[in-house]
Structure prediction request, 419 residues.
Amino acid sequence: MATIVESGTPRAWAVDEALGRLLDAERGRQRDCLNLLAGENVMAPAVHQLLGSAFAEKYAEGYPGRRHHTGCGPADAVEELAARRAEALFGAVHANVQPYSGSVALLAAAAALLKPGDSVLAMSVAHGGHLTSGSAANFSGRWFDVAGYGVRRADGRIDLDQVRDLARAHRPKVLLAGAIAYPRAIDWAAFREIADEVGAFLVADAAQTLGLSAAGLIASPVPHADVVVGVSHKLLGGPRGGFLLCTRELAERIDRAVFPFVQGGPMVNQLAAKAYIFGQADRPAFGDYAAQCVANAQVLAEGLAAEGFRPLTGGTDTHLVTVDAEATGLTGRELELRAEEAGLLLGRCAVPFAPTPPSEAAGLRMGTAWTTSQGLREPELEHVARLIGRIARGDRGAAGEIRELAQSTKPQCGESASF
Ligand SMILES: *Cc1c(COP(=O)(O)O)cnc(C)c1O
Prediction:
């Protein structure tokens, strides 16, 4: 009987033509469009190879040296390597690299520090917080008593006075800082002070920006937070997956929360790919890449302002750009669909204080991780901003230029990358 996938041979997909066609379609899609989705990045061939490597088969429940399965010699060494490299890269005392994803890492952090019904203070989802910051559809909103802080109407920055007032009134057990749609560096020290005043743990959800901190471009939450949540994909360009950094005091609680409370066996192939990317991100080339992501985002924000969009907070300190699209007369959803039709991927995003419902949204969110991995620089991002302006004005000629720009850029997924 034929195997479904004969790995490593181009003939593999002759065995399952339907899937072969889908894989081709996905590769073609990636080649033909410009990708400004904030959470996506091109992965290096080594990451693809490690994800598809022999480590994928291995079960290794537990931690190095204390597994529930035998045959874990190489798996132990891989996990140790990933954890020690994460600790070195981010300057942390303890790393747990097992979480399957960022959301699962947040669930584990909650499990380590909270009981159902406990109070949490987090960035409100309407102002840029992730679902795990108290959405009613998520475990966070269902199992905890979550109060939400937001940004100031005047300048779009996090309102630390409001955070302090809510902390005093709500007495949270966990103060959760971090967001998906906030383009500015976060003042972790100020959050620490507020957490200390009310006796709360400080958890930093730094999934978007921890890579920039590792590169020294923005302040790191690691010296301030009790627990830091990160992901190895997004800006870091590694495998999809989460990880946790914490203090010595919380190390055991965090480890037991990840396994056996939330997860079963870690994905050893994912651990290997994490180890790889934590090693690469400690090299100067990654610092150059991260700085270029920020420079590209700043040019994109300025270019979009010139096209009539209003950058939230007036600009960006990171690889993220969020804009209010009100002046275009279109909702974020309408713009997102128009852009997709023209071969450009970006995301709709809620604009704080705007009445537009989240499903439509008044704004857009973009990130420069993917395009920067492809080698795009400031002049190209300026061009991209103009193209987005043309799409908003209904100019159908933009699609051809987008495809040309996309196809001229390298690397594509799995072919080659800067790290
Ligand atoms: C991406 C992200 C998450 C969730 O990560 P997943 O791997 O998608 O589960 C959580 N918080 C923030 C701030 C993120 O950017």
